[in-house]
Amino acid sequence: LLEPLRAFALDRLKAHDEQHAAAHAHADHLLQQQGDLAWHDLPWVEAELDNVRAALRWAIDHAHTDTALRLILGVSWYLETNSLQREEVGLFEAALALPDGDGDLRLHALMRGATPAWQLGRHGQARDWLHAALPAVQGRPWPEGELLVRITLARVEIESGHPQAALLHLHAGLRLPPGGEGARASLLFHLADANVALGQPGRARAYVHEGLGVCREQPGLFWEAHLLTIQAGLDLDDGQVGAARASLARALELLASTLHSRILTLALSHLACTYATPAADHADLLRAARLWGLVEAQREASAQPLAVHHAGYLGRSLQAARRRVPEAAWRRAWESGRALGLREGWAESIGVLREDAGAGLTLTDALALRSG
After folding, report:
1. SS in 3 state form for 279-334?
2. What's the sign of the alpha-carbon dihedral 232, 340, 332, 309?
3. Labelling 47: which of 26, 202, 330, 346 has CA 20 to 30 A away?
C-alpha cells in the first residue's frame, strides 16, 4: 500500500516541478535532527538510514557539495561501527569529488574518510587524504586537528607494518599542544601499539598504564577498550592468562553500547588466544577455534584485514593450537564460529567469562582475583 502512495506523491511533485525543492527540504530536515557533524545517536541513524542514503544520493547527483559532506560526516560513525566501510569510503569519494564546498567541511571529510580507507587496507588512499589535510589543518587555529591527523597517519603506518614510521608522527604529536582527553588517550594507545609492533613490551605497557589513567579520569572514552586489549596481549605474553581475560572482559563490557566491529573482533581474537595457551585443554582449544572462526567470517564480510603485527601474532597462536586438535573437531568448531553473528559471539563470550568468574563479584573483579 505504501509503495503506490509513494509513487503517486513523486508523480505529483514532478508534475508541479517541486521534486528538487522537496528533496532539498528532506535533506535539510535530516541535518536539523542531528546538529553535530558526527551523529552518535545510533538508534536514530539506524531508523533513518534509508532516508539518509536517499538524501545522500540526491545531494551527490545534484552536486550539493556541503549537504553531501555534512550527511556523510554525520552517518560515518554508524557505517563504521556496522562494518559498512566500503559504502562509507565510496560516499566520501563521491562527496569529495564534488566541486567547491565549505573548506572546513572538506577538511573534516578528508580526515574522517581516511579511517575507513585504512580499515579496508587502502593505505595509499588514506595517506593521500591525510597528507592533503595536514597543511590545511596546520593553517587553522585548531591545534588538536594536527594531532588527530598525525595519529591517523601513525595508524596507517602501524597497519601497513611500518611502526618506526608511525613513531615519527606520534612523537611529532607529543610536541603539539595537548588536546582533549580523547585525543590524549588515542595518542597513548597508538604509542603503545607501535611499541608492541617493535617488540618493546616495557614501553608499550607504560603507555597503556598512562592511557588507562586518562580513561579513569574521564570514563566512557572510546580508546579504553583498545588499551585494555593491548594490555591483555602483554599480560598473555607474560603468562598471566587470568589478568588477560580480566582486561578483555572489561573491554567487552565497554563495547556493549556499540559493538564496534573492528575492536570487538580484535578483542575476541585475543580472547581466543587465552584459550589456546600451552596449558589449555581440548575444550578450551575448541572454544578458541570457534572464536577465530567468528572473527574470520566477520573480517571477510567487511573486507577488513588485521594490522600486520596483529595478524602475525594471532596467526602463530592459531597454528600452534590447531596442531593440538584433531582436524575434524577443529573444523567443526571453526565453522560453528563462522555461523555466529557478531552480537551472538559477543554475548556468548561474556556469558562464558561470567560463568568462569563465578557469582558474587563483577565479571572484571572476579577474573582479576582469580589471576592473582
Report:
1. CCCHHHHHHHHHHHHHHHHHHHHHCCCCCHHHHHHHHHHHHHHHCCCCHHHHHHHH
2. negative
3. 346
